[in-house]
Design goal:
It is built from four helices and four strands. It is an alpha+beta fold and 131 residues long. The protein has one domain: Nuclear Transport Factor 2, Chain: A, CATH 3.10.450. The protein has a four-stranded antiparallel beta sheet, with helices on one face. It is globular and about 40 Å long. The chain starts with 17 loop residues before the first helix and ends with a strand. Bound molecules: zinc ion.
């Protein structure tokens, strides 16, 4: 029985983000990393979020753990700039929806990613996205 991936790629979890979250494989692109980090949030996998966050900008693991978990409702990738296999950096605009205390809220972000030694990493937010 295959379960659809929480990142809403349309693929099954086993064929999408699971290999990344189990460190069996590494995302090839900034978008794949972005999706796997969203999936990690839906599963409160703070260790994965920490490991895929650039060491110059990441919070501590205990502070991530204490940030609590919202109920994540969906991810929509709006645009990608570079971030492909062979690139060293890229930007992604996305909207992530979640439910917090019965209220539905959205995070709109334009994020910066870098690829170091074959590992894509989240750096920080460049600002709210344009949509
Ligand atoms: Zn996925």
């Amino acid at each position: 029985m295959s379960q659809l991936c929480p990142c809403q790629s349309g693929a099954s979890f086993a064929d999408c983000c699971e290999p990344f979250l189990t460190y069996t494989n590494k995302p090839d692109t900034a978008e794949a990393l972005m999706r796997s980090r969203y999936t990690a949030y839906t599963r409160a996998d703070w260790k994965y979020i920490f490991k895929t966050w650039h060491k110059t900008t990441r919070p501590t693991l205990p502070s991530l753990r204490s940030s609590g978990s919202a109920e994540w409702l969906g991810l929509k990738i709006i645009s990608c700039n570079e971030g492909m296999l062979g690139d060293t950096q890229g930007q992604i605009e996305f909207i992530a929806s979640y439910k917090n205390d019965q209220e539905i809220a959205q995070i709109k972000e334009h994020s910066q990613f870098v690829c170091e030694k074959g590992q894509w990493l989240y750096v920080d937010a460049l600002g709210a996205c344009m949509e």
